TrEMBL record:
Protein name: Adenylate/guanylate cyclase domain-containing protein
Key words of the record: Membrane, Transmembrane, Transmembrane helix
Residues passing through the membrane, by range: 42-63, 75-92, 104-125, 156-178, 184-208
GO molecular function terms noted in the UniProt entry: adenylate cyclase activity
Family annotation (Pfam families): Guanylate_cyc
Gene3D superfamilies in the cross-refs: Nucleotide cyclase (3.30.70.1230)
Amino acid sequence: MGRSDEVLVPGRDTAVARFALSRANEELVLAESSLRGERRVAWVRLALMALLSLSQGGIAHVTGEPLPPHDFQRVLAIVLYGLFSVVALLVLRRQRPHLRHARWLPVPTTVADTSFFAFMGWHAWARTGQFDAGMLGASMGMVLVFSVARFSWLHVLLSTTLSSVGYALVAGMSGHGTSSSTSFVVFCYVTLGLLIAMTNAEVGSMFLRLRRRDGLSRFLPKQVVERVMQSGDTSLQPVQREVTILFSDIRDFTMLSETLPPREVLELLDEYFGQMTHIVMTRGGIVNKFLGDGMLACWGVPDSSEDHAERAMRAALDMREKLGELNARRVLQGLSPLRIGIGLHTGVVAAGMLGGAEQHEYTVIGDAVNLASRVEGLTKVHGVDILVSESTWLRGGGDFTGRRLGETHVKGRREAVVVHALHGHVSGAPVEAPPPPARIASGS
């Protein structure tokens, strides 16, 4: 059987295109986080002003030092910076997340913070004639500390530059800062700025990855999510490929559901699907969807594999074994055992995203899906629990035992379908990784 692996180009209005556009929302999320960070900085700025005003008198009272004289320039600077802090907080509280605002809002606040701390350092030297390197270094370092709440490396670069320039200017104007000491402080600022920028970038990236993974997991199988996280949105492009489809159904489920309360029916399906889904995923497949009491699984997408038919057949045998364990527990509980039918077919399908902007899913479409469902329906006709089509048997049945049941006509198809009853595996050995090439059986 030939193998096709063709990429289909989606239109502009497909679910894939809309999903790719949704990545722009990630920037809005960062903008929202940046706005919250700027609000926190505004509150810290106000608290800093309050502590600055109260600490002057409190420290002087404890240490017995004389209060610093109140001059017009110093008081004016504190009042203006305090007013700026209040206005900034009010503006930020009314602001809504916007990418453009997230880019420019930190600029005036960073400039104002740097200007205030630099002025206070210069003014202390101008008033007393003494250069307080510790106070200036710590106050200019506050500008860098504020940048921790900003996720943009440009804002961290701005804070680092202004802090370094502000310290160097005040130290140079005072005439007390040596070139070696000033260079050391600037070097520390640059090092701290680089560390903050790298940490912010890593935290932001990790946050977006976790958010995206959580969003994808809501409507994509685990394997598809992993592929998207590794390869990006292009991995969601529709592909045309040979796969093996498994369709299973619980026999007489309608009659069973009529005798049970809806909650017990839901609990039964939850336990059953939980066990069967684990088997499918363990064997390298994906559960495409649940259809009432039916399950549609697929092997060969999103990652292609040469042994998709063999893996699907092994999964079917595992499902038979697991159902026996479930039924043993049900019998002990006085409940009737479950019976299922499983049909497998190998053929070419189109696999990719399907749906609208509000709801989409990763699915497989093609005649192979319909035929797998028809093959499952034939299990009732032939009185067996697992049937595989001729294409699946030829693709992966070399290590399996079974019985050829011959040609059977199914509803909606002019050509007869050859099916095989799957009995078991020759060795019972698990599929190894990396998978070996598929072997073609010589007969049934």
